[in-house]
Write the structure tokens for this entry.
Amino acid sequence: MKGEGENMEKSFAKEMPKLGFGLMRLPKEDGKIDVEQTKVMVDMFLEAGMKYFDTAYVYTGSEEATRKALVERYPRDSYFLTSKLNAGSWAAANEAEAKKQFEISLERLGTDYLDFYLLHALSKNNVQFYEDYGIWDYVRKLKEEGKIRHYGFSFHDTPELLEEILEKHPDAEFVQLQLNYADWDAPAVQSRRCYEVCVKHNKPVVVMEPVKGGTLAAPPQVVADHFKAADPDASAASWAIRFAASLENVMVVLSGMSNIEQMADNLSYMRNFRPLNGEEQQVIKNAQDALASIPSIPCTECRYCVKGCPMKIQIPDIFSAVNRNTIYSQFERAKKEYESACRDDHSPAGACIKCGMCEDACPQHLPIRDLLEEAAALFES
């Protein structure tokens, strides 16, 4: 039986065109999703032979726009439609609310089944909700009823937790991972190790954030120079997406396209996709080395420092914001991340009382007190 399951998993993955349309960042007009521009993008995508559309219950307005731009305009068997159920406390107050998301998604999308359905954004902070609410049994039942064709989950945490989930739920048919060349060996994301866990368990991978939220579409100049030297006509985004799509166990790479120009660029090299060759793989390696050479705070986000902080400062999140500014020169985006890290009962970096408990706990022996002072000067002045 195991062999049959493995072959079935591989068959739907092998048949999939490599580019997926991520419907989280659709174009907007006057603050609302621009359905007419979305229709043009959907047309371009399908005409190029692509099929995979990815939305979610919690993507505001996305499912309704998908109905208007896609479902109402094309035969249902001409594309693959994906959505997600989020059982996290911010998205569902209880089991009934969590399970109701599926029927709401079907209604919003105007369809009676989904090709792929995901348990959304699993991490140590929410994985127990999916267990306690019986969501795994729920999606199995939906598949038995023919309301979904395949089920899996998207994931944001350590390879150790991913291993634990796949051992507990070997029936999961695929996994969606944050995967890009910048995060490949980054201690905070560990894309490579998470990908290797999926390979070990023979799970096809759907890639999210291949361009790191748009960051790798305009990488640091030292990185962009490597790409331009190798191919002056290729966009920086194309290198990032082709890197992810070239991995053997990758089923499809999602790109959250926000305008017609991005769609046209992606289709220019994914319509007739060719994996990176040896020389191009070296260009990626050079780009990774160039990124690593940019001075940054080498925080691994183990969060040991947070546990004993009397001021409840979210130190790793603050350092992540600092690194975004340092590496990618995205100050406004970094400041928003910083402000998010300081919400609720979490103190800003400037509230540090320099007790040193964080430094005693840090495996990397970082000068955390000095670094927090620098963060406060950067974001609080």
Observations:
- Residues 1-8 have pLDDT under 50 and may be disordered.
